[in-house]
Predict the structure.
Amino acid sequence: MKTTSTLIRKFGRFFVDESGPTAVEYAIMLAIILVGCIAAVLSTGDVQQALFFDSAREMSDKIQP
């Protein structure tokens, strides 16, 4: 049971340590930023796709008599 008490002590030190929460806070901020970027790309993706298809169709119509 010595390993169990050692594990408990390590977890105790981790929760008391001030650098641990800082790393967690940075990870949470990064996750929020990534979710925002992905949401922005997904929400504008259809509009951009339609724009490129319309442009390609118009150019195709101009090239072909």
